[in-house]
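Below is a filled-in request sheet from our internal design queue. Each sheet records the structural input a requester submitted and the sequence that came back. We keep these sheets so that new team members can see what a complete request looks like end to end.

REQUESTER: design group, bay 2
PRIORITY: normal
MODE: inverse folding
CHAIN LENGTH: 304
BACKBONE (tokenized):
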């Protein structure tokens, strides 16, 4: 089962309360969602969404004891705000995005996320739509592969790695990709050299960076006054996007009056709760090594 990362920190950031409305746009195994539903008992509500149909099934089972207090739907992150509106939920007191991959996805060889287990090289969160990682690789030339690895993962020696992949085509399995890059990709400390390559491909296959950029302003717009958005990232590229969007949304706008003599400060749309990201304790990383790169940022819509 997936162990939720920064669990206590997320619950204390969102401060769920009875009667509140919550949205979890990466509901995964339902771990954080369960904590939110417990904390907003007896009548708080949670809408949980995820691009992965399996995640919706798993969280539906885990959250069944909450009855109609939990509603679950399959959706991409950037499409969840429109879905919420269609379902009639206009605003939320707390929203959570816990990005990346769940242990359930990583541990299932048929999904193609892990290089430690052989399986079809798929990597799609929503297996109904879009190109699999194998199709993406086999249709790209070296220049496109290089760009993909740089833009989605800042992969070191991206050109050489792209050439190694290109020369090994067609690649259809996770083991083939791992073996193709193992000699060229650079390992960081004890991290396997294929790690960065697999992560970059997954981010590209699911268009994760573009979706995150598009989703953040929509999620700000869904917050009730006093409501909070918490985002957990696992990659520096994702964290940069969140940091920048939070900074921009919380800036005071300065406008000149008609005569150009006086500068007026217009209130910021949002307030950052923490300027520095919250990271897991050593004890958490020891128990759950997948937490090691997690960063939590929290932003609030001012109450007035
Ligand atoms: C780290 S897991 C979430 C775990 C969850 N918080 C829990 O406690 O069980 C991330 C989940 O987000 C989903 N996901 C990642 N990126 C997504 C995106 N752009 N749109 C929709 N779902 C996404 C994945 O399918 C995965 O189930």
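RETURNED SEQUENCE:
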């Amino acid at each position: 089962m997936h162990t939720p990362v920064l669990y206590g920190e997320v619950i204390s950031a969102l401060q769920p309360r009875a009667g509140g409305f919550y949205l979890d746009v990466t509901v995964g195994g339902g771990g954080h969602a369960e904590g939110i539903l417990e904390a907003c008992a007896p009548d708080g509500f949670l809408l949980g969404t995820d691009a992965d149909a399996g995640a919706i099934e798993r969280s539906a089972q885990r959250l069944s004891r909450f009855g109609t207090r939990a509603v679950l739907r399959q959706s991409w992150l950037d499409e969840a705000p429109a879905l919420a509106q269609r379902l009639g939920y206009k605003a939320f007191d707390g929203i959570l995005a816990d990005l990346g991959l769940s242990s359930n996805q990583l541990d299932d060889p048929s999904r193609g996320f892990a290089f430690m287990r052989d399986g079809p090289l798929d990597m799609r969160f929503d297996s109904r739509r879009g190109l699999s990682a194998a199709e993406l690789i086999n249709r790209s030339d070296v220049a496109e592969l290089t760009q993909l690895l740089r833009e989605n993962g800042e992969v070191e020696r991206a050109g050489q790695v792209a050439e190694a992949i290109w020369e090994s085509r067609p690649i259809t399995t996770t083991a083939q990709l791992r073996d193709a890059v193992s000699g060229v990709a650079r390992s960081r400390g004890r991290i396997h050299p294929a790690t960065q390559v697999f992560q970059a491909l997954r981010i590209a296959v699911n268009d994760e960076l573009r979706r995150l950029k598009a989703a953040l302003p929509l999620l700000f717009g869904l917050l009730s006054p006093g409501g909070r958005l918490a985002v957990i990232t696992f990659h520096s590229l994702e964290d940069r996007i969140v940091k920048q969007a939070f900074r921009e949304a919380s800036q005071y706008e300065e406008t000149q009056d008609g005569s150009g003599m006086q500068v007026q400060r217009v209130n910021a749309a949002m307030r950052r709760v923490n300027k520095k990201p919250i990271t897991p304790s050593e004890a958490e990383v020891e128990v759950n090594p997948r937490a090691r790169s997690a960063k939590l940022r929290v932003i609030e819509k001012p109450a007035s």
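SHEET NOTES:
- The first strand starts at residue 21 and ends at 24.
- Residues 208-221 form the longest helix (14 residues).
FILED BY: M.R.
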